[in-house]
Write a structure and sequence with these properties.
This protein has 252 residues and is of the alpha/beta class. It has a 4-stranded parallel β-sheet, with helices on both faces.
């Protein structure tokens, strides 16, 4: 089956879900549409996608960058190719889409952009590639919010904590089980986030109610940014050589 056929099937299923869950509440709902197959790593393909959107729908008011991916790997075992692949998708790909949207439409018409990152405030052990890329997205978003201020383009980020979806955890294999066994009890809220809790923050940032918000990073993580999550095991004995005098009771 071709990619476009798969996308058409997925769009149909999502539109049915939207109608079933939103249409009955009397609210105005949009629909999912299918465009040209695009790799956000490829600048020309991204430009083609944005041009298709504007030619077909005559406008591009809102943009959410949520494409990305990573894999579990320690820094010492991570190849340069693996590092670059994740950075090119998450950071460079996000830049491609932001810039194309600005150049083709938002420069003259304004707009709102939300970039999705992840909970990397305390680093991201075993995902150095993704942690570095998402930190870059956050700094890039702050920069773009200033450069594009005169065009009335707002640029913000949503920084999710760990979000539970069945498909997402299955993709990580045994590492997904590790998150459930080790990370979940360490979460201050003692639970993970739902996709709806992340999307609610995105919708607000896109809305007129957030018209004075730009260059911000909104954390939706149940307070986990303020706790050290046990993403790796560190042996319970003192580490790092001591400079000066430190009594025995002050170290393990």
């Amino acid at each position: 089956m071709k990619d476009v056929d798969k996308c058409n099937i997925a769009a149909k299923e999502m539109n049915q879900y939207i109608q079933q869950n939103c249409g009955d509440h009397g609210c105005s709902v949009g629909k999912v549409v299918v465009g040209p197959s695009t790799s956000i790593r490829d600048e020309d393909q991204v430009n083609n996608l944005i041009e298709h959107i504007i030619d077909t729908y005559k406008a591009l008011h809102l943009l959410v960058n949520n494409a990305g991916g990573q894999f579990v790997c320690s820094a010492e075992e991570l190849s340069s190719k693996g590092f670059q692949a994740v950075v090119n998708t998450n950071l460079t790909g996000t830049f491609h889409v932001c810039r194309a949207a600005f150049e083709h439409y938002m420069r003259d018409n304004g707009g709102s952009i939300v970039n999705i990152t992840l909970g990397n405030r305390n680093g991201m052990p075993n995902m150095v590639h993704s942690g570095a890329a998402r930190a870059g997205i956050e700094n890039m978003s702050i920069t773009l919010s200033q450069e594009w201020m005169e065009s009335d383009v707002r640029v913000n980020c949503v920084r999710p904590g760990i979000v539970f979806t069945l498909s997402g955890f299955e993709n990580y294999g045994p590492a997904g089980d590790m998150f459930l066994e080790k990370i979940l009890p360490a979460m201050p809220a003692k639970r993970f986030a739902t996709p709806e809790e992340i999307s609610s923050a995105v919708v607000w940032l896109l809305s007129e109610g957030a018209s004075y918000v730009t260059g911000s990073v909104v954390s939706v993580d149940g307070g986990s940014a303020f706790h050290f999550l046990p993403l790796i095991d560190i042996e319970d004995t003192s580490h790092l050589p001591v400079y000066g005098t430190l009594p025995r009771k002050a170290k393990l």
